[in-house]
Automatic annotation (TrEMBL):
Residues 20-189 form the N-acetyltransferase domain. This is GNAT family N-acetyltransferase. Coiled coil: none annotated. The lineage of its organism: Bacteria, Bacillati, Actinomycetota, Actinomycetes, Micromonosporales. PANTHER family: ACETYLTRANSFERASE, AMINOALKYLPHOSPHONATE N-ACETYLTRANSFERASE-RELATED-RELATED. The keyword Coiled coil does not apply.
Length: 198
């Protein structure tokens, strides 16, 4: 039997987060991002950036969450980090070209990745659900996330959770190759409770 859960990431997990990021990018984005760019990414440098994000975030509303799969059998229990989500108040990276800054009640997802071999086991949904609860408690009203045009998996996953394109588009310059992205958004305000009939 396998159990999955989400919690805040710890500093000693920065290396695992970097490994998940590299592995996922190399598998999921190999047709979008030039191979030499993926090959040149440095796991140590990424791990240090994640350590900083966990130990010294720019604000208390910047968070890194990690998804854990815990396998249980009669002899031992093992836990594996399998994905992560990073988000915080929207900044310039969340803007489309020429767009005015987003409101202070907008949170931007910078990363939402589940290692491919652990996909389709509910980890992405658990990460997103845990993040939404935290975003609401932090006072955010809207969430945004950029997705590659040619990444139907991310677009489909967010779409199934109610996210929709908001019309903003941009193209990232990756080693002289323009990679188009579109931005999705979702309203975080809770649905009003249904009045009791009767």
């Amino acid at each position: 039997m396998a159990l999955g859960y989400v919690r805040p990431a710890r500093p000693d997990e920065a290396g695992e987060i970097a490994r998940i990021q590299l592995t996922t990018w190399q598998v999921a984005y190999r047709r979008l991002i030039p191979r030499q760019v993926l090959d040149e990414l440095d796991a140590g440098w990424l791990a240090e950036r994640w350590r900083e994000a966990i130990t010294a975030p720019p604000s208390p509303r910047h968070r890194v969450l990690i998804a854990i799969e815990q396998a249980e059998d009669s002899s031992q229990a093992t836990a594996h980090p399998v994905g992560f989500l990073a988000a915080g108040p929207a900044d310039e990276a969340a803007l489309a070209p020429g767009e005015e800054p987003l409101a202070v009640d907008v949170v931007a997802v910078t990363d939402l990745l589940v290692e491919p071999r652990w996909g389709r086991r509910g980890h992405g949904s658990r990460l997103l659900a845990a993040a939404v609860d935290l975003w609401r408690s932090d006072g955010f009203q809207t969430a945004v996330a950029w997705a590659y045009d040619r990444d139907p998996a991310t677009r489909g996953f967010l779409g199934s959770a109610g996210w929709e394109p908001d019309g903003a588009r941009r193209a990232l310059d990756v080693d002289d190759l323009l990679v188009p992205q579109l931005r999705l958004h979702v309203d975080l305000t809770p649905e009003p409770a249904e009045p009791n009939a009767g």
